[in-house]
User: Fold this.
Amino acid sequence: MAMTLLEKILAAHSKFNSVTPGQIIDIEIDSRVARDFGGANVVKNLKDFGLSLDDPGKTLFTFDCNPTGSDQRYAVNQHICRLFARENGIKIYDIDAGIGTHLLIDEGFIFPGATAVSTDSHANILGAVGAFGQGMGDMDIAAAWNKGKLWFKVPPSVLINFTGDIPENVSPKDIILNLLKLFGANSLLGFSIELSGKCIDKMPMDGRITISSMATEMGAIIILFPPSDEIIDYCRKRTGKDFIPVFADKDASYEKVFNIDISGFVPMVSRPGEPHDAVDVNTVSGQKIDSAFIGSCTNGRMSDLRKAAALLKDKKVAPGVILKIVPATDRIWNECLKEGLIGIFKKAGALVSNAGCAGCAAGQVGQNGPGEVTISSGNRNFPGKQGKGDVFLASPEIVAASALAGYITTPDKIPENPSTFITTVKAKSVTGKVTVHKDEKPRSSFLEGRIWIIQKDNIDTDMIFHNRYLAITELKEMGQYTFDNLKGYEDFARKVQPGDLVIAGKNFGCGSSRQQAVDCFISLGISGIIAESFGAIYERNAINAAFPIIICKSISELEAAAGDKIRIDLKTGEMIDLRNNQTTLAEPFSEVQFEIYMNGSLLG
Assistant:
C-alpha cells in the first residue's frame, strides 16, 4: 500500500506494515525528551505512579527555557531533573547547551525516518530532516519514558508542491510567513504537510529548520521535508549510523495537493497578536520600534546570524533601540565567536546571551513591557507571549535592518540617519486573588453544566495559562490564573463555578505544549471544553488528563445563550440545551478517549 512520508515513518515504528489516516496506533519513540519546562512534572508523574524507565539511553533532559538560571522556581525544577538524571543514568544537556530540538539533530539523536517527542511544542522542527517530532504534555512524556511507546492518531497528509525560483530577497522565514498568510492558523489544522519542488530539494538545513519550526503556528502536526543528499550526509556524520532514509511513495495518496508558484512570494512581517496575520513588509514599513530580537528555534542558526552580522558590521543600533541576539546552540555560539560575529554584534550595541530559546520561553532575554514595540525573528507573537508589548515577526535580515533604522524596514532601505524617540510609555502591573475549586463528582458518560460562550478562534495556551506561571506544579494553585491573559475574560477564574462548561471556536489551545493550560480548568472544577476544533497538542493533553474536550463542528448552529445548561452524552455526542431542548451532535469520545477518561488519566 502506497504511503506518504509521515505514514511510512509511523508504520515503521508500529506493529503494522502500513497505516492510514485516522488509525490509532502505538509508535516506538527513538528519542524521549523533557525540558526544564515540564521536566519536573515528568519526574513527578514517574514517581507518583511508581514508573520505571524503558531505556535511559533514549531518554534526555534539555534545559533551554531558562538557560540563565535566573528564575528561582526554574532553578528548583532544573535541580529536580538533575538529581533524577544522576540517579537514573539519563543524559542531560544543561543550561550551557542550547535548544533541545536543535541538539537532537546536531548531536546525532535524530535522523531521517526517526521519531522523537518532547515537552517542546516545536518538536515538529525535526521535519526539517525528514523525521517525526511532536510536542507533548508532561503525562505523555512520562508514559514515553516508561513504555518507550505512545498512542498516536495517524493524521491526514497534504502535499504542497512549489514551482518557480525563490526571489533573491525572500528568506526561509518569508516563505513560512507567506504560507501562514495563505493557509492561516487552522485551515490545515491536524494535517501533516509535505513539501516538494526543486527549490525545496536545494534548500539547506537552516532554511528547512526555519520553515518546519512554524508548523505549530499553522495548526499542522508537522511540516516534512524529503531529506536531500546534504541532509542525509549531515545526519550520518552526526549519528555515526548508516541509516536508510525514508521518502513518500510516488503514488502516495494525499487528502489535498496545492501547487504554489514561489516566485510570487515577497518579504513578509506578521503583525502583533497572530503569526498568521502576515503582510507584505511594505505594509508596516516605517513602524517605530523599541527593541529587536534575533534568535529562537526558528532563526538562531549560523546562517541567520551571519546574515544579521553582514548588515550590522561597522554600524550602530539606532539610539534607544535594544537589540538582543541569542544563538540556538552553544556550538553555534562558539562558531560566532570564532568567526568574529560576537565582536560585530557587541560593537553594534547588541546584547548577546548564551544559547537557548530566549524570549519565546520567558526565561531569558527577549521579553518586552507594556507599550513596547518589538520586531522579532521568533515564531510566536501571541498577546503576552514575549511580554506585555507588541511583537512583529520577521526574518533576521529585516530585524537587523530595522534595529539599525529604528523602525521596520528592509536591508536595501537602511537610512543614513536612524530614527529617534520622542515619547515614552509607563509600565503598569496587575495583581489578583481568587478561590480555587475542586471537582469531586463521580465520573459518568454524561456531562451537564452552565455554559460560558467565548466567540473567538485560535485561543492559544498563553491566553489560557500564561508562560509566566509555568513553574507552578501544584494543581490547586493553577486555577486562579485561568484566562487572565485573554482580553475580556481576565476575571473568569473569579466568576466561574464548578461544573461550568466553556464553548469556544476553532483551534482552541493552539500554541505551546503546556499541560497547565488543561490543568487550570481541572483546578477550577470546569466540566469540559466544547469547541469546533482543538490544537493537536492540547487535544492530547486534555485526553490524557481525563479532562473532557468535545469537538462540535456545528456548535454555531446551537442557539444557546451564556448561562444556559447543556447536557452532553460523551458516548453518542448528543448535546441538548436544557433551556430550549435544542439538540445538536458533537463527535463522540473515541474508545481511547473514553477509556482514559473513565480511568482518571493516561497514567491512572
